[in-house]
Amino acid sequence: MAQPEKKGGLLRKSSASKKPLKEKVVLMYDEIFTTEDPSKCNPRFWEELFLMKVNLEYLEGKLEALDGEELMKIKDNINCLFQHCIQALGEEHPIRVVNALQTLCALIRGVHQKNKSTSGFDIINMLVGFDKAELCMKNLMESLDSLLCAEGSESLKSLCLKLLLCLVTVTDNISQNTILEYVMINSIFEAILQILSSPLSRREHGYDAVVLLALLVNYRKYESVNPYIVKLSIVDDEATLNGMGLVIAQALSEYNRQYKDKEEEHQTGFFSALTNMVGSMFIADADEKISVQTNEAILLALYEAVHLNRNFITVLAQSHPEMGLMTSPTSPVPTTPVTPLGTTPPSSDVISSAELPLDADVQTSNLLITFLKYSSIVMQDTKDEHRLHSGKLCLIILTCIAEDQYANAFLHDDNMNFRVNLHRMPMRHRKKAADKNLPCRPLVCAVLDLMVEFIVTHMMKEFPMDLYVRCIQIVHKLLCYQKKCRVRLHYTWRELWSALINLLKFLMSNETVLLAKHNIFTLALMVVNLFNMFITYGDTFLPTPSSYDELYYEIIRMHQNFDNLYSMVLRLSTNAGQWKEPASKVTHALVNIRAIINHFNPKIESYAAVNHISQLSEDQVLEVVRSNYDTLTLKLQDGLDQYERYSEQHKEAAFFKELVRSISINVRKNLAFNTLSQELLLKEFSTIS
């Protein structure tokens, strides 16, 4: 007997003489797409429909094939289908609930495709009808809330979250998605928290829950009171906050692991041998090839948690085993669509410190370390738009952390030392640092290392001015804390001073090109004021008196750069051009640096002449510096330890609007509702009567 084959909703025999047969569910869909009430001839129509396996492709395709006018003709049947889907969510039989959830997803996506040019209100009318919208959406949200909070099927919870993600991301700009008004009124915030606080639910659904929360928080956040913002800002339950932190840490760890694996592949491959052979001249190309797609959604979730909830700051330092070293548990993992690296939920389970005891031989980590490693990867290449956005968001998160008193306390804590292996961009003039030689230091050292690394590696024609400004601001905020609390940090400050001086040198060398696009004097002033901070207050936070001497040595050794900067800003401040005012600010800021150079240089030359030495050693210069402090006169400069606090609404609204749009498109593209096969569901729901 010829085997029936299934294709596009049709069942056909191998024999060409027979007419193709349609699946029953497809025939039922066709009845809905007429102007007649399908239950007129068959009173059990809706009951039977939700026992049939959903054909998502056919249903969505059918909706998309209709024009606006044709869709309006069958509006009553669409409304009826939507309402019966909501009713089916309350059924005892899980198969009906699953089919109703999948049907709702297809309906929402299909109707939206047809209404792209129209307002959200038209979509609401098309799906439920204005007169019944409030009640229907209330019932829908209550049903989803019950399913998410119930002890029941994990597959159902997974589908509920996917439906909610579908609902949220149906428009590119989520603030124009009027359906979300009902999600605001009928909050599912507590259901999301319950998922994050339970180890089992978190392992299965944590990723989707965190992404959903991050998107909901961004709905009309500047125009109205968003209940999800209010509620997120006051969460103080430790288990919930730790759960959220672990989901984020796991997703970032997964990205870091994928990047490391790709990096190792390239290092051991033919390309590595080739680059070594020709002197690493193609290093930039190699780096581009090992890029892994960034995960802005999870980064946005981290930002919202850090920015909105002060209690979350404690989660950043919560110790857990290094996730890259943990073995994956054997428990089943929910099926996820195959999508580009870094965009899907991490494959290995999220484990809390309570769930897995710390092993003395395993390096402990925390969310902040994982985030710093992630940042060190995405900030390497800012030419790609996604990485540029990710890099900017990383720096915004670090800005929020650098302003927080409690965060600074654990960043600078001498009793919390970690070995943080940041990724460093391959460069011809330096060797790759050996991981094993990394010292254990307070976490602030890793933050400063990351800032120094960025400063050193991004002096290029396409100059990322905005990122540099944020970078210098972070360093400044950390110094303000150290000065205020008299924290003497044992750090290799010379690396920072050298990076800052080289940055000034770069700005001067590329003055013409950079001035055509940027006000470089803003950045130059910030850099000069960092040196002024060290000069004025360095004795209160530099680790030893010799560190202060070394600061003067670096300024004197590199005096030519400061002299050239002074000449440049003096030239522009005496002209009547557009740069007169910003350049003159730098001129005034250089007063103490010039005083140091003009005071010590003649004394060094005199010492060399008296002792008949053509070139002084570092120790000899330091000896001259130490013996001539008394006669040095410096001006007291005000406001060096003051800064403007971060404000999202006034300065970053446009960036976040664009970022959330990009995330919404990406989440929608990667959503898959048919990942649960009917066979698996039948097996899971074998109790169905």
From TrEMBL:
GO cellular component: cytosol; membrane
Keywords: Membrane, Transmembrane, Transmembrane helix
Region named Disordered: 328-350
Residue span, Armadillo-like helical domain: 435-671
InterPro entries in the record: ARM-type_fold, ARMD3-like, ARMH3_C
Location relative to the cell: Membrane
Keyword Cytoplasm: no
Comp. bias intervals (Low complexity): 338-348
Name of this protein: ARMD3 protein
Gene source species: Chloropsis hardwickii
